[in-house]
Task: inverse folding
């Protein structure tokens, strides 16, 4: 029964830019929803500001608007498109909030738009704390004693009643932003104050803490006819107290009896019946580990991160089914797409276990507070499947790409007993799992750990078992190890690398032990700071100096294969093999009988695309976009496609994407096993970001045919020295530089080059620990800190070229080069390309500069030579074009350029990699003609979630997502990009009522003055810190002087007189400085804070133009 | 100790023996529930069967005093991929292996249960032995003999299981209650009586073979036919009593009880390829169109061939369309193939007990009013 006629037009709202708490899972959900709706014959109009997504591809919806997600924009689109229905439960909290706002603004009613799926009243009932509390009381569902407060006074009153500790949860915020647990009155006041500010409706729930209880989630669905099902339940390894997004999670629950399981399931269904959910819903419970008592923690009346996880964990496509329910279909009318023979009205039965581990950004942001609480901090997650917990856990850990391949973290192992003890007694952080294992290693008992941490003994026993196996490994040699023993270790999830690192390290021979531990130390030191490939190279170098007795991962592999021990691949079939399944969604396991070799000859050529792993700073959803497009291109070329990835949030791990999906860690061992099993002919590593390309050497060494650019070509671009020589040969200018290993040599090098200099440790990715340094003093400080980071590796010092940056993505077949377009950065060099605003086509380049860039690009591409994609970053200083960096792979800008130019970059890269000539591919060669519109990309940050992190734009990437503004003019595009990124442009900004607080470093005061004059001319009220104020007064501007102390600036911001802050810092990352405190406080107050004069100038330009942007769709 | 499962089709699955150290023989069936191993272990419907758990980690919560469905297990063997030696649950009183040993049940763990399920799915129901590794030679040697000898090696399953598992004597489960339900125990799960007691019934449990007169003498207000093991057609001797009871009292049947009602009123039953055993079976109510997730455990089903006019189908399985519920056209008699008493499994069909109560009260001239 369809709610709307079959050809009706439906509006789908996406979730916008990736931020912590709202990531790629909504691209997956939204894409599925669009496909599902079109399958049913509907026309889909999609709005999302995030250009890096699959869902904003023009073939996903009939009309794709990449526009800011605001009520104004959506109203304009509704007015123009006149959709009959609106689906808002698949775009995260963003879409849900917008639906509420659109309804409250009367827009839906005015244009006769019907809200599909879960009714608005239910959404409000689940979201609004008081309504929710009332409902739970009515349903006799226990909730922790709580009260909703609207002010600090009210909060304190309630606190007196219930006592500490309490949990504070602001209403209507993403991923629990602004919430926290307070143990002391001081903490309670601080969190409450922040929460009241961050909640858009100024509501905070204060509740009695049920910390330490088991946290259990149920993913449930209900159709319009009242049929309710549970897709899966999940148990957090971390008990209540850590946000579920920051918890290690297993599915299904492991420590619940059927009675416990059904009690909570029944409660979940009671709640969704009462809420009249039509679609997906998530219910979180706390269960007392010592009784049958439970509490309902939270209900999300929409598809969530957990539902993406549950979909991948069970095979049940929640978003797709939710979209069909929203248009009126019933669960028993929808075929289960996994089996193809049963119906969607059933509950998946798993015959395996799933472990999810969050991926945190603390490797990038050592200065951010890594404590985990009720505010989510992870940027992404990995999922692994196994037939036992140990296998799934160890697979998940090596999927993280944090230099670990087991329950061992060198950093934690180096702690003294006192430090370890103190750590475990304190608030948990991202290292807890490793600390628990380390404690067990040192003889702490499971009972003691359970008492101290409330982690269930079941998980601790499993960890203890792993620790015991490790100690067995240490005491045997590879020669002694029997096939049966080796199989046992593989069954428990030990990677070949882990076995090699541990084996024989404690056998009697002292010599071997010493050698081995030295190797381990180096390996650990390397892997901590480097990407996998260079760590591997390091390992190989080290192992050469060792006696032949220390086995390498290759030795373990050889022994394993000789013994015939290979992984078995099992289907995720939703039904525990009860029914035959037609969906090739696999995971590996060593538990079970060996597979019979595939006797059928492969009918088609097979190609594999190596995915990009968990979302992290610097490697986001863009690479998933590229992987998915590569699969589609290969399918078009007649290949049977295999995709390998471990990120449950993404479209690439939708079983609908490739012909076969393997949910596996992205390590050489795991990838090789799949290549061998599938008989893959061609392997693509250029689409999965650094993760995939780092595997190139190891795969090639094992005889795998790497598609596209050769291994030598990859090295020519990636290896710093080789690349320097290549540019010299081509007579292409590059920045002068040198290296230093200590302060003295650093100062000497800097002196030779001249300040400012760009400094960074060698062996880092994504600009980690990169900085621009202006003076000896700063350099000394940098070197002091960098010695921790660099671990004895030289520090690279280059001349800082403070010019205009230009980014190019190109495709090359080895003979010709096609450049679809150039992106000009708005901020000058020194800001990481991922964090800069940029514009297509370039607005200020001369024809000569463009010609040079094109010519350099062609030269480099042909000399590497590149077959497939390449990305180059240029900087232009005084008309001279320098090359900064070349990446022989897909880049962050590929999806954007593909979308805005209409040149299918990934498709072309695949085609040329498979032998097609670029000249005949239909898009020509050379620089592709620019489009008539202008496109501006703006970064989006998650600073509010990462306490302690300095927000200043720098060479170190900090953004989590991006938005696009597409306009007829540069100013219009700028305006849209700013608005999309949460920086208002328009009536609310640029008037007398707008207060702007400025604080400018001496270095940039002269440069800033004209800008500040223009802000004043717009009518803004200027506030300035003392030095800056003096400058403005001297220039004859009216300004309110703010004393240079923390209290004055903070009370000003709190007063509400200031809506924007412009702070060009002297020195970043120094928590003792006022600038740092001001920037952090601005973030806490949720006010926009610009730290680059270039960004400020662009914002000014948008403000001054006073454009009225019109929504534009991309479909031809 | 190494052991294995030897199936009648010659397939052998290896593992480690746990629990009792003896040989086990039975029909090998699989259950897809991810929780509820304790309830499954003690569900008398598994009498004579070797149960395979498809979820690989079994025994995580140990065994507790509250979740037994019968005083002892009736199954002959229990197969898992992994059996937890270090359970964690505040109610746990012992491990799975200890329980099996104490109860004399043979367990086999470390088995490729997924492959085993696939074998059963493809082949259909199979009989098999769990034996110690060194006994296997003997068995396999026997299997290479002629077909008739093979038959003797894998004998037909016993046909008297209901009589073995039923209570030997009449007893009172719950003394007090508004309505008196007599529960015919064909191998009843404890939660049926608990559920009846939970809605305020007085419950008397009687042996399967109790005569109509004896039951009548108990002055019941309603009759509950329980679940139980084996082929319903083996209980043909009970059908006349059931027919008479149905003509006299409101009657509600579960699982085997449902099949016996069907047989009593002229329908047929047939053996399924490998049955339904799990906690996720979708059953559609033909009256409301709503689908319940149900707990199931049956290897036979009510056939629709020559379906008697006196009965109507009320529920169907969403996946294979099999009959999941019937009602008598005139009498207050109804039954379901699935388990509204759950334990293990979803609880939403619990309301069928309330429907039964409505019939009982109607017969007594009362209207049931209950809070929703």
Result:
């Amino acid at each position: 029964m369809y709610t709307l006629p079959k050809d009706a037009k439906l509006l789908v709202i996406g979730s916008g830019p990736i931020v912590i708490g709202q990531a790629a899972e909504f691209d997956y959900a939204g894409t599925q929803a669009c496909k599902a709706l079109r399958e049913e014959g509907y026309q889909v109009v999609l709005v999302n500001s995030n250009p890096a997504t699959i869902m904003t591809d023009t073939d996903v919806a009939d009309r794709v608007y990449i526009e800011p997600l605001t009520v104004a924009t959506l109203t304009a689109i509704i007015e123009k498109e006149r959709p009959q229905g609106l689906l808002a439960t698949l775009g995260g909290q963003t879409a849900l909030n917008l639906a509420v706002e659109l309804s409250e603004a009367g827009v839906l009613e005015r244009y006769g738009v019907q809200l599909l799926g879960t009714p608005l009243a239910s959404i409000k009932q689940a979201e609004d704390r008081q309504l929710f509390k009332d409902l739970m009381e009515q349903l006799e569902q226990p909730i922790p004693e709580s009260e909703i407060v609207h002010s600090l006074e009210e909060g304190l009153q309630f606190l007196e009643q219930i006592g500490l500790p309490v949990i504070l949860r602001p209403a209507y915020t993403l991923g629990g932003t602004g919430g926290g647990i307070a143990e002391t009155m001081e903490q309670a006041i601080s969190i409450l104050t922040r929460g009241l500010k961050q909640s858009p409706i100024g509501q905070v729930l204060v509740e009695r803490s049920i910390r330490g209880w088991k946290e259990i989630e149920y993913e449930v669905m209900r159709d319009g006819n009242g049929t309710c099902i549970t897709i899966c339940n999940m148990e957090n390894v971390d008990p209540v107290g850590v946000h579920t997004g920051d918890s290690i999670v297993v599915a299904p629950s492991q420590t619940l009896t059927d009675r416990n399981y059904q009690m909570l399931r029944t409660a979940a269904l009671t709640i969704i019946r009462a809420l009249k959910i039509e679609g997906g819903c998530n219910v979180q419970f706390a269960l007392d580990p010592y009784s049958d008592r439970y509490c309902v923690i939270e209900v999300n009346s929409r598809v969530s991160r957990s539902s993406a996880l549950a979909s991948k964990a069970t095979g049940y496509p929640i978003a797709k089914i939710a979209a069909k329910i929203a248009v009126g279909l019933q669960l028993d009318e929808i075929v289960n797409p996994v089996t193809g023979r049963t119906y969607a009205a059933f509950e998946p039965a798993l015959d395996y276990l799933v472990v999810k581990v969050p991926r945190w950004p603390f490797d990038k942001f050592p200065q951010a507070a890594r404590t985990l609480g009720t505010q989510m901090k992870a940027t992404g997650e990995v999922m692994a499947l196994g037939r036992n917990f140990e296998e799934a856990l160890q697979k998940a850990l090596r999927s993280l790409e944090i230099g670990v391949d087991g329950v061992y973290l060198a950093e934690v192992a180096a702690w003294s007993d006192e430090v370890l003890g103190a750590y475990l007694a304190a608030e948990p952080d991202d290292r807890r799992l490793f600390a628990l294992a380390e404690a067990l290693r040192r003889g702490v008992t499971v009972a003691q750990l359970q008492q101290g941490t409330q982690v269930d003994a079941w998980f601790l026993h499993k960890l203890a078992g792993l620790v015991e196996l490790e100690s067995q490994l240490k005491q045997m040699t590879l020669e002694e190890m029997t096939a049966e023993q080796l199989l046992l270790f593989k069954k428990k999830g030990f990677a070949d690398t882990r076995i090699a690192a541990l084996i024989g390290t404690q056998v009697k021979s002292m010599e071997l032990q010493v050698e081995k531990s030295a190797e381990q130390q180096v390996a650990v030191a390397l892997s901590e700071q480097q990407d996998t490939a260079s760590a591997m190279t390091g390992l190989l170098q080290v192992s050469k100096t060792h006696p032949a007795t220390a086995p390498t991962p290759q030795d373990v592999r050889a022994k394993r294969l000789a013994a015939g021990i290979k992984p078995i691949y099992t289907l995720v079939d939703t039904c525990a093999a009860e029914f035959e399944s037609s969906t090739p969604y696999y995971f590996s396991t060593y538990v079970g009988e060996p597979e019979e070799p595939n006797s059928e000859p492969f009918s088609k050529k097979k190609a594999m695309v190596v995915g990009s792993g968990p979302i992290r700073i610097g490697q986001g959803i863009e690479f998933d976009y590229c992987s998915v497009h590569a699969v589609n291109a290969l399918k078009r070329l007649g290949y049977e496609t295999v995709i390998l990835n471990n990120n449950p949030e993404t479209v690439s791990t939708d079983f609908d994407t490739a012909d076969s999906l393997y949910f596996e860690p992205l390590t050489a061992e795991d990838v090789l096993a799949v290549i061998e099993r599938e008989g893959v002919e061609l392997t693509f590593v250029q689409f999965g970001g650094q993760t995939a390309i780092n595997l190139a050497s190891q795969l090639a060494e094992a005889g795998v045919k790497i598609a596209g650019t050769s291994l030598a070509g990859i090295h020519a671009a990636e290896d710093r020295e080789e690349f320097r020589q290549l540019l010299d040969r081509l007579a292409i200018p590059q920045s002068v530089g040198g290296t230093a290993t200590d302060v003295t040599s650093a100062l000497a090098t800097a002196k030779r080059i001249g300040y400012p200099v760009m400094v960074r440790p060698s062996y880092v990715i994504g600009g980690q620990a990169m900085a621009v340094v202006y003076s000896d003093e700063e350099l000394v400080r940098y070197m002091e800190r960098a010695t921790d980071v660099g671990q004895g590796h030289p520090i690279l010092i280059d001349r800082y070229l403070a010019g205009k940056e230009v980014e190019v993505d190109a495709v090359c077949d080895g003979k010709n080069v096609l450049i679809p377009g150039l992106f000009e950065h708005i901020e000058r060099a020194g800001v990481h390309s991922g964090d800069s605003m940029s514009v297509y086509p370039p607005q200020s380049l001369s024809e000569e500069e463009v010609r040079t860039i094109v010519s350099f690009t062609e030269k480099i591409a042909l000399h590497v030579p590149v077959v497939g994609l390449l990305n180059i970053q240029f900087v232009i200083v005084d008309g001279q074009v320098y090359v900064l960096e070349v990446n022989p792979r897909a880049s962050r800008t590929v999806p954007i350029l593909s979308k805005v130019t209409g040149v299918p970059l990934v498709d072309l890269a695949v085609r040329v990699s498979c032998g097609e000539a670029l000249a005949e591919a239909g898009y020509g060669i050379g620089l592709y003609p620019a489009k008539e519109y202008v496109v501006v990309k703006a970064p989006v940050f998650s600073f509010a979630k990462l306490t302690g992190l300095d927000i200043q734009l720098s060479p170190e990437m900090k953004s989590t997502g991006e938005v696009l503004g597409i306009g007829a003019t540069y100013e219009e595009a700028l305006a849209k990009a700013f608005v999309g990124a949460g920086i208002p442009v328009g009536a609310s900004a640029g008037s007398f009522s707008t207060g702007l607080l400025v604080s400018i470093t001496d270095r940039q005061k002269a440069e800033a003055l004209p800008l500040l004059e223009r802000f004043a001319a717009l009518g803004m009220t200027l506030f300035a810190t003392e030095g800056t104020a003096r400058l403005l007064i001297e220039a004859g501007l009216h300004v309110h002087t703010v004393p240079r102390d923390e209290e004055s600036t903070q009370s000003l911001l709190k007063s509400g007189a200031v809506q924007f802050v412009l702070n060009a810092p002297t020195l970043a990352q120094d928590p003792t400085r006022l600038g740092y405190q001001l920037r952090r406080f601005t973030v806490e107050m949720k006010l926009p804070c610009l730290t680059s004069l270039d960004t400020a100038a662009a914002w000014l330009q948008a403000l001054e133009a006073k454009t009225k942007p019109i929504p534009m769709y991309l479909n031809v | 100790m190494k052991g294995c499962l030897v199936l009648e089709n010659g397939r052998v699955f290896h593992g480690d023996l746990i629990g009792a150290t003896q040989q086990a023989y039975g029909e090998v069936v699989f259950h897809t529930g991810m929780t509820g191993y304790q309830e499954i272990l003690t569900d008398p419907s598994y009498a004579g069967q070797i149960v395979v758990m498809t979820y690989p980690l079994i025994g995580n919560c140990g065994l507790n005093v509250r979740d037994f469905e019968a005083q002892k297990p009736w199954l002959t063997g229990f197969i898992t991929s992994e059996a937890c030696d270090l359970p964690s649950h505040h109610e746990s009183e012992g491990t799975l292996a200890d329980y099996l040993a104490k109860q004399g049940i043979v367990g086999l763990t470390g088995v490729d249960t997924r492959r085993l399920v696939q074998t059963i799915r493809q082949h259909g129901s199979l009989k098999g032995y769990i034996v110690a590794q060194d006994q296997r030679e003997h068995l396999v040697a026997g299997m290479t003999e002629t077909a008739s000898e093979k038959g003797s090696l894998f004998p037909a399953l016993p046909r008297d299981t209901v009589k073995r598992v039923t209570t030997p004597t009449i007893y009172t489960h719950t003394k007090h209650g508004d309505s008196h339900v007599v529960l015919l125990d064909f191998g009843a799960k404890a939660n049926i009586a608990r559920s009846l007691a939970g809605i305020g019934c007085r419950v008397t449990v009687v042996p399967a073979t109790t005569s109509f007169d004896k039951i009548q003498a108990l002055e019941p207000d309603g009759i509950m036919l329980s679940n139980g093991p084996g082929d319903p057609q083996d209980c043909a001797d009970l059908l006349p009593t059931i027919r008479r009871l149905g003509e006299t009292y409101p009657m509600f049947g579960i699982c085997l009880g449902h099949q016996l009602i069907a047989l009593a009123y002229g329908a047929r039953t047939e053996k399924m390829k490998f049955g339904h055993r799990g906690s996720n079976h979708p059953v559609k109510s033909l009256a409301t169109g709503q689908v319940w997730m149900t707990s199931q455990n049956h290897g036979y089903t009510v056939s629709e061939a020559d379906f008697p006019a006196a009965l109507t189908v009320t529920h169907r399985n969403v996946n294979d369309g099999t009959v999941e519920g019937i009602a008598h056209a005139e009498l207050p008699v109804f039954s379901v193939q699935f388990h509204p008493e759950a334990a293990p499994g979803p609880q939403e069909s619990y309301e069928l007990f309330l429907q039964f109560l409505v019939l009982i009260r109607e017969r007594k001239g009362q209207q049931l009013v209950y809070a929703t």
